[in-house]
Design goal:
The complex is a heterotrimer of chains A (about 90), B (about 120) and C (about 900). Chain A has about 90 residues and is an all-alpha fold. Chain A is built from three helices and no strands. Chain A has helices at about 10-45, 50-75, 80-85. Classes of the chains: A mainly alpha (about 90), B alpha/beta (about 120), C mainly alpha (about 900).
Chain lengths: ~90, ~120, ~900
C-alpha cells in the first residue's frame, strides 16, 4: 500500500464546499415548501386558520430560512475558487 | 540422361551467352523470352531447372515464380533468379517467393555453372 | 400647530442631508477613501429599493384589504435571494464579465447584441415603470395632504404642485449624482450611499410606527394578537392561486425590474456581496413586513370608517397626536418613494440613451460624429440627463392624467406582471444555449401583448381605454377573447388570469420559436459565453483589425471615455504589445478590450457598431450605419471573417498536401530512375562480361562463334556509350545548363539533313514529304532541332511495324506557330502509352531494338528549351509526332532568291 497514491476523492474541504453548494441549491425548494404549507391547512381547515397563527408560522419559517441561508452562504466557496471547484459539474 | 534447363529471359545476347555456357557443359537448354505464357512453357518443357529473369515483358519474374511454387507439378523445381536491378528489396522478394538461388547481373560464367550444378545435385 | 411647517422644514433638511451624504460618498470614492462604501452591507441596503412607497404605505393598505396576502410580495424575493447560487450568481458574473449596463443590454447582448431587442425591452421597461413612478409621486402628495388635513392653519394649495416639486427635486438629484460619469458600470457611490441611508430611515420609521402601535396603542403582543383576531382580517382565507401566483410573480419581478437589475447587477461591486445579501436582504424584508398586519388591524379598529388604509402608517401617529413619529413616518415614506424614482430613472435613462437615442444620433450624424465632429461623451451625458428628466416627467404626466385615482393603487402588481414578461428571455438566455433572438423577440411580444390586453388596459377601468362592452362580451362579441376570461377561462382572479396566460404563452412561443429558428453566429457565440460563464471568462466575438486605424479609434475613445482614460488604456495596450507611444496595433485582443470598455459607457450594441464603423474603414456605407439599429450587418461581418479564416486554413492545407505529394513523387521518381539506370547499365555489361569470359576460356569455340561474340561485345559497348551520352545530355538539358547555339537556316534544308543522318546505310524507310513551305526560315538552335528530327525519324525506322514502312513529314502554320508532323503507317502507339512515352526509360515495346528509352525524353527537354513542344497526335493511322515551334523562331524568307 503506497501512501503517495493520489486520492480518487476530493480533499475534505472541497468536498464540504460542494455539498454546501448542493444545500444552497436546495434551500429555495425548501423555502417554497414552507411558504406554501399554509395552503394545505386551508384545504383541511374549512373556515381557514387564524391570521395570527399563519402569520406566526410564516415569520418563524422566514427566520429559519434566513438563518440557514446565512450558515450555508458563509461556507460556500468564494470568487476564483468557485470556478475551479465547479467546473466539472 | 541430360538435364534440361529452361531459361526465361528477354535479352537476346544474354540468352545466347547463357545457352552457350550451359550447352558446352552438357545441359539441354531451352529458352523462352516473355512473361505472358512462361508458366505454360514450364509445364510443357518439364525442365529439371529454371533460370528466371526478373524484368520480363508481360509479367514480372516474381509473379511467375509464385505460380511455379503454387503448382503441385512444379513446386519443388529448383529456380535460379537473375536480376539486373541489384537492390536489396529484389533479393528479399526472391527469398520470400521461394527462389532456390539468386544472382545479380553481370555474373561470372563460372558462378552460373557452379550454381546450376549445385542446384541439380540432389 | 406648526406641524406642516415643521414637516416642510424636516423634509428640506432631510433632502440637504441626502445631498451631503451623496456628495461626501462621491468625494470619498474619488479620493480612494471609500473602502467602507464597498461593504456588502451597503449593497444589501441598496437592494431595499425593492421596498418602495408601495411597500411603506401600500403594504398596510393591502393587508387591511386582503390580510396576509401582502406577504407574497416579500416571500418571492426571499426565495430568489436564498437561492442566489442558482440565478443571481450567474447574473452578476455575466453582468461583470460582459460589462452589462442594464437589463435591456443584458438581453440584447445575449441575443447577438441585437439592438431591436434592446429597444423592445426598453419600451417595455418604460411602460411598466412609468405608472410606478407616478405611484411614488402620488404617495408623497397624499402623505403631504394627510398632514395638511391635520393642520387646519396651513393651506396646501394645489396638491399636484407638491408632486411637481418632488419630481423636479428628484430629477435634479438624479442628474447630479447619477450622471457624474458616463461609464454606467462605474458605481454611483453617491447615489448608492444615499439609497442606503434612505433604506435605514424607512426601516427605522416603519419599525418605530409598528412598535408604537403594538406597545403604545394595543399594549403588548398578546393584546395585539387579540385585536387582530377580532378584526376583519382575522381569518386566513387567501385563494391558493393568488398565494402561489403572487409569490412567483414577485420573484420574477424581483429579477426583472429595471431598478432591481441596476442595484443588484450593474452597481454590484463584488460578487461576494451576494453571500451576505442572500440572508441579510430577506431579513430586511422580514423586518419591513413584521408590523404590517398589526398596524392594519389596529388602524381598521380605531381609524374612522372610510379612512384610507394606505395611509394608516402616517395617519395613526397623527391621530394619536404623535407628531414627531408622524414626521419620521413621512420621511420613511418619502425615502421609499425617492430612492425608487432615483434608481429607476438612472436605469431607464441608461437604456433610453444607449439603445434608443445614441443609435439614432449615430445614424443621423452618419457615423462621422464619432471621429470627426462633436464630443460623444457630452452627447451621451446630455442624452442621459434628458432621459432622466423625461422619465420622471413622464411619471408626473401619468399622475396628472390618471388624476391620482384609485387605479394607481393597483398599478404595483400590474407593473410587476409587465416586467415579468422579460423573465423567459432572460432565464432562457442564461441557461439554454438554444435560445435565439427571434424566439426571445416573439416571446416578449406575445407576453407583452397579452399583458396589455388582459391586465394593463383593463386596469384603467371600464370605458377608459377598453369599452364596457368589450370587457363584458369580448371584441366583436367573441366571448372567448374577453380580456378577463381568455379562451373561456372564466371566474379567475383577473391578475392571476393575466399572469398565467401571458407567462404561459410568452414562454411557450419563446421556446417554440427558438427551437424552430436558427441562431446567427454572434448569437451562438454570446449564448455560449452566457450559459457557460463559469467555464470561460469574458471573450466575445473576435475583431480583425486589419483596416482599423488606431488613431481613429483613439479619437473616438477619447470622446467616450475621456481623454486621460482613453490615452492610458491605449498606451497600456501599446506597451503590452511592446510598442511605445499611444497607438497599439489594432489587434483583435485590443479591439475586443476596447469594445468592452466602450460598452460600459454606451452599451454593447452601440459600442460594437461604433468600432465596426472604424474597423470597417473604407467600406463604411449607409447600410453599415444602419447596423446600429439592425445587427444583421455585424453578424455578416463576423461570419465573413469566419469564412475567410476557414478558407485560408483550407488553402494552406491544400498547399501542404500538394507539396507533400510532390515531394513523395520526386522521391519515388528518383528511386525508379536509379533502379532503371542500374538495369540499363547492367544488361549490356552482363553480355560483355559473359562473352568476354567465353572468349577468354576459348573452350569449344568455333571461329564463327568467336567473331560473332566479338561483334556482340562491340555492339554492347557502343550501346553503353550511347546510354551514357544520352544520360549526360538529358542531365545537361534538365538542369538548364545547356547553351543554345542560335543560328538561322531554312526548314527544308534542316529536314533533309536530318533524314540523311537518320536513315543511315540501310534506308528501308521511305520518306514522303507532304506540304512543306520552302520559304520558312528558322532562327533557333538548329543542331538541337535536328537532333529532335533525327530521333523521331529513327524511331519510325526502328518501331514502324508496317511491311513497307513510310514516314510522311508535313508542316503547317497556326497562329504564327510552326507545326511539323511526323506520321508513319505502322500500328501506332497504344493510347495508354501516350502519357508516359516522353518519360525517361519508357519504351513502346520490349522488342530488343537498342536504345535505352531516353530519346523521346531528350526530345521533350530540347523542345522545352527551344520554347516549343513535342507531342503525340492521336488517330492519324500510325504513330504521329507533332513538333511545335514558337512564332518568334519562325519567319518567311523575304524573297525566293533561288
Amino acid at each position: 500500500m503506497s501512501q503517495e497514491q493520489p486520492s480518487v476523492f476530493l480533499e475534505r474541504r472541497a468536498y464540504r464546499q460542494r455539498r454546501m453548494a448542493d444545500a444552497a441549491r436546495m434551500l429555495p425548494v425548501f423555502g417554497v415548501v414552507l411558504f406554501y404549507l399554509p395552503l394545505l391547512w386551508a384545504i383541511s381547515g374549512g373556515q381557514g386558520r387564524a391570521t395570527t397563527y399563519v402569520m406566526s408560522f410564516l415569520f418563524l419559517a422566514w427566520l429559519v430560512l434566513l438563518i440557514a441561508a446565512a450558515l450555508i452562504s458563509s461556507r460556500l466557496p468564494s470568487g476564483a475558487e468557485t470556478d475551479d471547484a465547479f467546473k466539472d459539474e | 540422361m541430360t538435364k534440361r534447363v529452361l531459361l526465361i529471359e528477354d535479352e537476346p545476347n544474354i540468352i545466347e551467352a547463357v545457352s552457350f555456357i550451359l550447352s558446352r557443359d552438357g545441359y539441354d537448354v531451352k529458352t523462352h523470352s516473355n512473361g505472358h505464357d512462361a508458366i505454360e512453357a514450364v509445364l510443357a518443357r518439364a525442365p529439371d531447372l529454371i533460370i528466371l529473369d526478373v524484368m520480363l515483358p508481360g509479367r514480372s519474374g516474381f509473379d511467375i515464380l509464385r505460380d511455379i511454387r503454387a503448382n503441385e507439378q512444379t513446386a519443388d523445381l529448383p529456380v535460379l533468379m537473375l536480376t539486373a536491378r541489384g537492390q536489396d528489396t529484389d533479393r528479399d522478394m526472391a527469398e520470400r517467393y521461394g527462389a532456390s538461388q539468386y544472382m545479380t547481373k553481370p555474373f561470372s560464367n563460372a558462378d552460373v555453372l557452379a550454381t546450376v550444378r549445385d542446384l541439380m545435385t540432389p | 400647530m406648526a406641524t406642516l411647517n415643521v414637516l416642510v422644514l424636516a423634509s428640506l433638511l432631510y433632502v440637504v442631508l441626502l445631498f451631503a451624504v451623496a456628495f461626501a460618498a462621491d468625494r470619498a470614492a474619488l479620493h480612494g477613501r471609500g473602502a467602507w462604501l464597498r461593504s456588502p452591507w451597503i449593497y444589501t441596503l441598496s437592494l431595499s429599493i425593492y421596498c418602495t412607497a408601495w411597500t411603506f404605505y401600500g403594504a398596510v393598505g393591502f393587508a387591511a384589504r386582503s390580510g396576509l396576502e401582502f406577504l407574497t410580495i416579500y416571500l418571492g424575493p426571499t426565495l430568489i435571494m436564498i437561492g442566489w447560487w442558482w440565478t443571481l450568481r450567474k447574473l452578476v458574473r455575466i453582468g461583470r464579465s460582459q460589462r452589462i449596463t442594464s437589463i435591456a443590454d443584458l438581453i440584447s447582448s445575449r441575443y447577438g447584441k441585437s439592438n431591436l431587442l434592446a429597444v423592445l425591452v426598453t419600451i417595455l421597461a418604460v411602460i411598466g415603470t412609468t405608472p410606478y413612478i407616478a405611484l411614488q409621486l402620488q404617495s408623497v402628495t397624499l402623505s403631504f395632504a394627510a398632514f395638511a388635513e391635520a393642520d387646519p392653519n396651513a393651506s396646501l394649495g394645489d396638491a399636484s404642485s407638491t408632486a411637481l416639486w418632488v419630481a423636479l427635486g428628484l430629477t435634479l438629484f438624479t442628474i447630479l449624482f447619477g450622471t457624474r460619469n458616463l461609464d454606467a458600470n462605474e458605481r454611483h457611490h453617491g447615489v448608492v450611499m444615499a439609497i442606503a441611508l434612505e433604506a435605514v430611515v424607512k426601516l427605522f420609521a416603519l419599525l418605530a410606527v409598528g412598535i408604537f402601535v403594538v406597545w403604545g396603542i394595543a399594549g403588548g403582543v398578546s393584546e395585539t394578537f387579540a385585536r387582530i383576531d377580532a378584526s376583519e382580517i382575522a381569518r386566513w382565507d387567501v385563494p391558493g392561486s393568488r398565494w402561489v401566483g403572487l409569490t412567483l410573480l414577485s420573484a420574477a419581478a424581483f429579477l426583472c425590474l429595471p431598478r432591481m437589475f441596476q442595484v443588484m447587477v450593474v452597481e454590484n461591486e463584488d460578487e461576494g456581496h451576494l453571500r451576505t445579501a442572500s440572508w441579510a436582504f430577506p431579513a430586511y424584508l422580514m423586518l419591513m413586513s413584521l408590523f404590517v398586519v398589526p398596524i392594519a388591524a389596529i388602524g381598521l379598529d380605531i381609524m374612522p370608517a372610510g379612512a384610507n388604509p394606505d395611509l394608516f402608517v402616517l395617519t395613526l401617529p397623527l391621530q394619536e397626536g404623535r407628531e414627531g413619529l408622524a414626521i419620521l413616518s413621512f420621511l420613511g415614506g418619502f425615502s421609499s418613494a425617492t430612492s425608487m424614482v432615483i434608481v429607476a430613472a438612472i436605469a431607464l435613462s441608461t437604456m433610453l440613451s444607449n439603445h434608443v437615442v445614441m443609435p439614432v444620433w449615430l445614424r443621423m450624424t452618419g457615423g462621422t460624429g464619432i471621429v470627426v465632429s462633436g464630443d460623444v461623451r457630452q452627447v451621451a451625458l446630455l442624452t442621459r440627463r434628458l432621459s432622466i428628466a423625461g422619465v420622471v416627467l413622464l411619471g408626473y404626466v401619468y399622475l396628472r392624467l390618471s388624476s391620482g385615482g384609485a387605479a394607481l393603487a393597483a398599478i404595483g402588481l400590474v407593473s410587476f406582471a409587465g416586467v415579468a414578461q422579460l423573465l423567459p428571455a432572460m432565464l432562457g438566455g442564461l441557461f439554454w444555449r438554444g435560445a435565439t433572438r427571434i424566439g426571445a423577440l416573439t416571446g416578449l411580444l406575445v407576453g407583452f401583448a397579452i399583458w396589455l390586453y388582459t391586465l394593463f388596459l383593463p386596469s384603467f377601468g371600464p370605458s377608459v381605454i377598453l369599452s364596457q362592452a368589450l370587457l363584458e362580451a369580448g371584441p366583436f362579441g367573441i366571448s372567448w377573447l374577453r380580456p378577463r376570461a381568455l379562451f373561456g377561462v372564466d371566474g379567475m382572479d383577473p391578475l392571476v388570469h393575466a399572469v398565467m396566460w401571458s407567462m404561459l404563452l410568452n414562454t411557450f412561443s419563446f421556446i417554440a420559436v427558438s427551437i424552430l429558428s436558427f441562431p446567427k453566429p454572434l448569437e451562438r457565440l454570446q449564448g455560449a459565453q452566457f450559459v457557460n460563464v463559469f467555464q470561460h471568462s469574458a471573450t466575445t466575438g473576435t475583431w480583425s483589425g486589419g483596416l482599423a486605424q488606431s488613431e481613429d479609434l483613439l479619437l473616438m475613445s477619447q470622446r467616450i471615455l475621456g481623454a486621460a482614460e482613453a490615452q492610458s488604456l491605449f498606451s497600456k495596450a501599446a506597451s503590452r504589445q511592446g510598442l511605445s507611444g499611444y497607438l497599439p496595433e489594432p489587434s483583435p485582443d485590443f479591439l475586443q478590450e476596447l469594445e468592452r470598455e466602450l460598452s460600459g459607457s454606451v452599451g454593447g450594441a452601440t459600442a460594437h457598431a461604433m468600432i465596426s464603423q472604424i474597423v470597417g474603414g473604407a467600406t463604411v456605407s449607409v447600410q453599415d450605419l444602419m447596423a446600429v439599429a439592425d445587427e444583421t450587418a455585424q453578424i455578416m461581418e463576423y461570419s465573413s471573417q469566419l469564412e475567410a479564416k476557414s478558407e485560408e486554413l483550407a488553402r494552406t492545407a491544400r498547399q501542404l498536401r500538394a507539396a507533400n505529394t510532390k515531394l513523395t513523387q520526386i522521391s519515388e521518381q528518383k528511386d525508379t530512375f536509379l533502379s532503371q539506370i542500374s538495369h540499363e547499365l547492367r544488361t549490356p555489361m552482363t553480355s560483355i562480361r559473359a562473352f568476354s569470359e567465353i572468349l577468354r576460356d576459348g573452350k569449344g569455340l568455333s571461329e564463327a562463334d568467336g567473331e560473332k561474340y566479338s561483334t556482340i561485345i562491340h555492339d554492347e559497348t557502343v550501346r553503353l556509350t550511347r546510354l551514357l551520352d544520352d544520360l549526360l545530355d538529358l542531365s545537361v538539358l534538365e538542369n538548364g545548363q545547356v547553351v543554345l547555339n542560335t543560328q538561322t537556316g531554312s526548314l527544308s534544308d534542316l529536314l533533309q539533313r536530318s533524314v540523311r543522318a537518320a536513315q543511315g546505310e540501310e534506308g528501308q524507310l521511305e520518306i514522303k514529304y507532304g506540304q512543306i513551305d520552302q520559304n520558312i526560315v528558322l532562327t533557333t538552335d538548329l543542331d538541337r532541332l535536328a537532333q529532335v528530327f533525327i530521333n523521331l525519324i529513327t524511331n519510325a525506322r526502328k518501331y514502324c511495324d508496317a511491311k513497307e514502312p513510310v514516314l510522311t513529314i508535313s508542316t503547317q502554320r497556326q497562329n504564327g506557330q510552326l507545326i511539323i508532323d511526323f506520321v508513319d503507317n505502322g500500328s501506332g502507339i497504344p493510347a495508354d502509352m501516350h502519357a508516359v512515352i516522353f518519360e525517361k526509360f519508357s519504351r513502346i515495346s520490349h522488342a530488343r531494338v537498342g536504345g535505352a528509352g531516353l530519346g523521346l525524353a531528350i526530345c521533350a527537354e530540347i523542345m522545352t528549351r527551344l520554347g516549343g513542344s513535342v507531342g503525340i497526335v492521336p488517330a492519324q493511322g500510325g504513330s504521329a509526332f507533332r513538333v511545335i515551334l514558337p512564332p518568334a523562331t519562325v519567319s518567311q524568307a523575304t524573297s525566293p532568291a533561288a
